[in-house]
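As a warm-up, study this chain.
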Amino acid sequence: MLSTDALLLTAYFAVLIALSILGLHRYLMVFLYYRHQRNRSVLPGRFEEPPIVTVQLPVYNELYVVERLIDAVCKLDYPGDRLEIQVLDDSTDDTAELASKRVAYHRERGIDIHYLHREDRTGFKAGALAAGLETARGELIAIFDADFVPQPDFLKATVDHFVDDGVGMVQARWGHLNRDYSLLTRVQTILLDAHFVLEHGGRNRSRCFFNFNGTAGVWRRQAIEQAGGWQHDTLTEDMDLSYRAQLAGWRFVFLPDVVAPAEIPVSMNAFKSQQARWSKGSIQTARKLLPRILASPLPFRVKFEAVFHLSANFAYPLMVLLAVLIFPSMLVRYNMGWHEMLLFDVPLFLAATMSVTSFYVVSQREIYPDWKRRLKVLPMLLSLGIGMCLNNAKAVIEAVVGKQTGFVRTPKYRIEGAGGAWGEKRYRGHGGYLPMAEVVFGVYFTATVVYALVHQIFGSLPFLILFQVGFLYTGLLSLRENYGERGGREHPAPSGLARPAQSGAR
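Now compare it with the structure written out below.
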């Protein structure tokens, strides 16, 4: 019978090996991206007569950005008689008044724009999109979230790909309006760039499934309807519909050179709520659709990639287990005189972290001439990924056990460039109890770092410091937002606007 120490070490190395395998999948994404680079999306032709496009703008309590969004969409360069715009507003605050007035302003100037307000928010964003589709006249449906500012040529750069009758959706790459605002936003841009360039690019080029990102994309209406329409039984209605549509035989196109600028979350709590929603929703989608995917006649490579794609967030519970086990396993081996066994950690840690590092390096090199400068925040990116594990693991576990939660939308504050302030604005997120747990983990790893220094276990220090910094950064930043001077207080609305009946999140 194995001793307690043996069981602990077995569990520790099992978790580390599992994370290393998940890390190796990043290498596969890079391989697919370059291996199939000849399969880049090519424009199949051009429409003789432009198809009718309905642009849907789902919003909910977006006081600071709704006018910017409406104005940008009304500047789209597309024939006016072939363009319809729907503002799908579920707001319960002054956003409704702002949006309706802005819609009226543009209607007076000849824009075919409509304001649709729901009193019943059933289905959240998915429900709003489905409700808008009932009256939409477009054969193509473009969607933009409230934090986006599409360029005037967006439709001209995307619509002609639907000349191919088999194309069901075209996804553009997200740009970043406020990349240089803070360390947090700079890290997020690298995360998003890698997702779009390598994950979408690698999957699309290798003819595997990839997902619509909920915004900055255009759907063929027929594809939405044949796939079963918008459904709200997961928190990632975009991923859910994407897989159902591709299972129905529709092909997707990713256009890395078509960029739709957007605002990145500037607060830690907003970032956490976004990541939790994505993590939970992906596992909900996996539970819902993986059995159907695996039972389908799809090629093995497509099924294999779908499994990794939909289940990738299981890495977060594993990361929490690893965080708990690191120090006990180090203590056991040191006390037993197995100093040299500590060196076994290094190759496994490298397998788990270097694959991730190379993944982000390649994505930056593919997009930016100054990619080396942008990689200065890479160590912080690795730490942030670790620090987010408690937040995202909770979301994953909720999905596994079937716990239902509401759609918590990410607050936007109209922060552009490196300037701007959001501390006095509404829609403040709250981190709950998890920030305290993150700080406890940060203190725990501080003690682990001290132990490694005292006992000269220098090989493990870089990895231990990543854990220490990650947990302290996410936890302390959230606590500052929770209990700082401006904490969760509501603040006065801009002049001329009343206080909201309530401020919620979608």
